[in-house]
Amino acid sequence: MASIIDRVKNSVNAFIRSEAVENTVQETYQPGGYTSYGMRPDRGTRRMSQDRSLVSSIYTRLSIDVAAIPIEHVRNDDQGRYLEDVDSALQSCLKVEANIDQAARQFRQDIALSLFDKGIVAIVPVDTTADPNVTEAYDIITLRVGEIVAWYPYHVRVKIWNERTARYQEMTLSKKVVAIVENPFYQVMNEPNGTLQRLMRKLSYLDSIDEQTSSGKLDIIIQLPYTIRDDQRREQAENRRKDIEMQLTGSRYGIAYSDATEKITQLNRPAENNLLTQVEKLTEQLFSQLGLAPSVFDGTADEVVMLNYRNRAIEPIIAAITEAMERTFLSKTARTQGQSIMYSMDPFRLVPLSDLADLGDKLLRNKILTPNEFRSIIGYKPINDGQADVLSNPNMPESKQLSPDAEAPAPAPAGDDPAFMAEQDKIVNGVFDDLEKTIDDLSGGSGG
User: Fold this and answer.
1) Helical H runs in 86-228?
2) How far apart are CA 132 and CA 126, in angstroms?
3) pLDDT tens digit string along 45-56?
4) CA angle, corner 238, sides to 235 and 242, nearest 5?
5) Is the C-alpha dihedral spanning 107, 110, 115, 116 positive or negative?
6) Which residues touch 13 (CB under 8 Å, ≥6 apart)?
7) Structure confidence by residue, pLDDT tens digits, 26-46
8) Dist. CA 403–CA 392, nearest whole Å
9) CB 152 within 8 A of CB 175
């Protein structure tokens, strides 16, 4: 145990450590060099029209569900079945940290949000162990999501966040190096005349009408008791209008008076239009085309609805991301060796707790899962028991199952066991006695 003096000597106060960090920051980020920001600058900005409508909630829900599916760098066997995880820097990017600003899950959500907003995004390997333009034998250390701003036959120009300069920067990269992902729902979400774009325009129009309605204007017409045909009468009417305005703005309660011969007509009633009906119809079309349901967003969807939502909406997006990564980040040699980038969707997340016990019993009895594998599904730690890692039927205790590491029992001894030899002699003697008796009976019968 360390002494009190050593503990005091090695301890660091949080305030002292903060002062040291502050001094380092001030020395590093001098004026004219790095720039500080009040908000996180590397976070991609979305179009303002989305933040003012329900489109933002749709994007957020889809991106969260896409990010909830892990992506891994794995090795498969000859049949294409999962064998093991690959210990690589790319695996660390996909499971732990994609870059200095984003964890793996946040990185996946950034891919999905950028994909919905732009239609096509680029996943750029920023730091690698070797130059990807020279050799295919390299490992990826950091990844970032970039926006494609220009297309060339064999290259793309990508706008990406440069963490070293704390600014967005454009650079031209080869298509063989950058994983280009296209939104599977591009025709619905990103086409200029697609359902989602039409819905966004209608919502923008509806917001404009609401702003005009709630702008605070009275929108009234004053009918004066005389005709306004000459300049003198027009000037008199203008003075009367200004007088009523001054009465309304200068009064504590906004009260004004008018002459008995004047008639005031109010026009600030909402104009009837079919914008709201069109918005509702476009929303229904968008939900059906994307495989969504209102119950998914309010949390009341049952297992069938959620399964349909995951298969029709989430699976195409996550599959497009993993396929783009695999074809770009893994060389032909690596794919020949069985390496792959896969996603795994947990089917038990959709099973209600009331049905989980019955399902677990079926999986254990039919030797599909071991007890420890099922314990990890329901969130329990594995137990240190040899039988807990063996595929066996717990309802048949008489069938003795052997663990993979257990040794088979030694065969029973044969020639060296006296009891075994005596038993064998007894059996042989009995067979000979029966044979002699049978021969005697046959001989006696023939002699008679």
Assistant:
1) 89-95, 104-118, 186-189, 195-213
2) 10
3) 555 444 456 788
4) 140
5) positive
6) none
7) 665 555 555 555 555 656 555
8) 10
9) no
Question: What is d(CA 96, CA 102) in angstroms, rounded to the nearest whole number?
Answer: 9
What CA–CA distance (Å, rounded) separates 410 from 65? 54
Two structure tokens written together for 372: 């420890």
| Least confident range of 152-166, 184-198, 295-309, 366-380 | 366-380
What the block records as the tokens of 255 is 């009260």
Read off the pLDDT of residues 64-110 as tens digits, 9 standing for 90 and up. 999 999 999 999 988 888 889 999 999 999 999 999 999 999 999 99
Q: Which amino acid is at 294?
A: P
Structure token digits, residue 427:
């059996």
Q: What is the mean pLDDT of residues 311-334?
A: 93
**Cα diameter, the chain:** 164
Q: Which two tokens stand for residue 134?
A: 């020279």
Closest CA to 108 of 136, 143, 57: 143
Residues facing 214 on adjacent strands:
none
Q: Kindly tell me the burial class for residue 313, based on how many C-beta atoms sit within 10 Å of its own C-beta (0-12, 13-18, 19 or more).
A: buried
Residues whose CB falls within 8 Å of the CB of residue 361, separated by 6 or more in sequence, listed in order: none
Residue 276: half-sphere exposure toward Cβ, Cα within 13 Å: 6
How far is C-alpha 102 from the geometric centre of its chain's CA atoms? 14
Encoded amino acid at 380, one letter: Y
Which residues, in sequence order, are CB contacts of 93 under 8 Å at separation 6+? Answer: 99, 104, 107, 140, 141, 142, 143
Using DSSP's 3-state secondary structure scheme, residue 264 falls into strand
356 DSSP 8-state letter = H
**pLDDT surpassing 50 at residue 447:** no
Q: In this predicted structure, which of 6-15, 47-56, 149-158, 257-266 has the lowest mean pLDDT?
A: 6-15
What does the buried/exposed string (b/e) look like for 33-43 if buried means 16 or more CB atoms within 10 Å of the residue's CB? eeeeeeeeebe
* Residue pair 382/375 in contact by the 8 Å Cβ criterion: yes
